[in-house]
Amino acid sequence: MNRTARAVSVLALVTAASVLTACGDDSAANPPSLPGPAETPASSTAGTGGEAPKVSNPLDAASLVTDPCQALSSSQLDQLGLTEGQPRPNEGLESGACRWERPEGSLDSVDLTVIAENGNGLSALYADKESNEYFEPTEIAGYPAVYASLLDSRDSGICDLWIGVNEREVLHVMTNLASTKTAEASCGLAADVAEAAITTLGG
């Protein structure tokens, strides 16, 4: 049974979150949450209005647009306790998604996609932040990021993390943990996966 897509915004950037969430099936039934975003005050990381913090060291994410499963190497998968990724479609988006799961029948999963359709990058999410039930700026491996979603399901194991890897493209990581229903667990895993993907891209 697919979970209903969460329409976070009409913007392409935020729409990707709902598409990615919609990819969930029975294996994503009861995801857990992770630690909330790093305790960085919004005033110190966020720009004014709809402007996100600038990306000081832009990364080329083109390889992940065509094959998001390349985001995590075999050694990174071992460290994160995840199995080999499986490509998944993202209707209406240029890039597909990749899903990694935990082994031995676990219902835990992580999805990643690169959102390239929106020329404003992470700033599109900032401009529409009032539409989100939670919006918590943070930083991942030196890159501006935001924990944000239309619905706050972190205490049910679902966490959405957006990372600006350049001024146009955004990585979206969504964790869905059935085994550990805490915000610390779901958002923590999202941060770990995002940091590993940034390392893969050369950040």
Automatic annotation (TrEMBL):
<keyword id="KW-0732">Signal</keyword>
<dbReference type="Pfam" id="PF12079">
    <property type="entry name" value="DUF3558"/>
</dbReference>
<feature type="region of interest" description="Disordered">
    <location>
        <begin position="75"/>
        <end position="99"/>
    </location>
</feature>
<protein>
    <recommendedName>
        <fullName>DUF3558 domain-containing protein</fullName>
    </recommendedName>
</protein>
<dbReference type="InterPro" id="IPR024520">
    <property type="entry name" value="DUF3558"/>
</dbReference>
<feature type="signal peptide">
    <location>
        <begin position="1"/>
        <end position="22"/>
    </location>
</feature>
<feature type="region of interest" description="Disordered">
    <location>
        <begin position="28"/>
        <end position="58"/>
    </location>
</feature>
